[in-house]
Amino acid sequence: MGGREVEAVEPLPTRAPVIPIERRTRKRVDARRGTSVLIIDDSKTIVVALSRMLQPSGFLITEAYDGETGVAMARATKPQLVFLDIVMPGMNGFAALRALRRDPETQEIPVIMMSGNEHATEQFFGSRIPADDFMKKPFSRLEVFARIQGLLDEQLVPQRRTAVTVRAP
């Protein structure tokens, strides 16, 4: 008879209370204070960002803005870890890494390569370049420290990996 049709609507579920999630489930293990790091990247933004992440944890930072200068600085200062960009003008990261690996003075320095360029990333994973790890740009503080932690020995000093198996990003 002329009554209105009413649609039954289920009540909205009540919202569960927001419980803060721990950023890390386990404490980060840092390298020994005073660990020397060379950052080789033509982007001042990346160099500054990495420096600001690492210095508060006691890392000693040296900077180079091209491959040639970076290789020369690695030979002169013998850093305990190198962050190396792949795409740079002049000597690119692949050539710089080859130079570091051929030199007995620098061949054992652990190197974490970086790139935000998709083609360079593909080249890295298709190459047999003996880098110790790889980070895709942009990266987070958590990722930077996870990559470093993966290279630490018992004395908390970064070391080359004996069997180089780098994970794809």
Defining key terms:
169 residues, alpha/beta, Rossmann fold, globular, disordered C terminus
Low-confidence runs (pLDDT<50, min 5 residues)?
A: 18-22, 163-169
Tell me the name of the CATH homologous superfamily of the domain at 39-149: Response regulator
Spell the H/E element sequence.
EHEHEHEHEH
* Through-space gap between termini: 66 Å
In CATH's first tier, which class of the domain at 39-149 applies?
Alpha Beta
Number of strands: 5
Under CATH, the topology of the domain at 39-149 is which? Rossmann fold
Helicity range of the residues? 25-40%
Q: What would a concise description of this structure say?
A:
The protein has 169 residues and is an alpha/beta fold. It has helices at residues 44-54, 67-77, 93-102, 118-126, 141-149, and strands at residues 36-40, 60-64, 81-85, 111-115, 133-136.
Overview of the structural elements:
By secondary structure, the protein is α/β, with parallel strands linked by helices. It has a domain at 39-149: Response regulator (Rossmann fold), CATH 3.40.50. The chain has helices at 44-54, 67-77, 93-102, 118-126, 141-149; strands at residues 36-40, 60-64, 81-85, 111-115, 133-136. Helix 1 (44-54) links the parallel strand 1 and strand 2 (60-64).
Walk me through the topology:
Layout: E1 36-40, H1 44-54, E2 60-64, H2 67-77, E3 81-85, H3 93-102, E4 111-115, H4 118-126, E5 133-136, H5 141-149
Parallel strand pairs: 1-2, 1-3, 3-4, 4-5
